[in-house]
Amino acid sequence: MNKKNELIIGFFTLSLVIVLYWGINFLKGENVFSNKQFYYAVYENVDGLTISRPVTINGFKVGQVSAIEFSSNNANLVVQVSIEEQIPFSRNSILEIYDSDIMGSKSLELKLNKGSVLAKSGDTLIGSVANGITSEVSEQFGSVKVSLDQLIISFDDVLKEIKNLSSTANRLLSANELKLSSSLENIESISNTIENQTSSINKIISNLKSVSDSLSEIRYISISENINNTTVELEKIINKINNNEGTVSKLVNQDSLHLQLTKVLNTADKLLLDFKANPKKYVSVSVFGNNKKTN
Question: pTM for this one?
Answer without folding.
Answer: 0.39
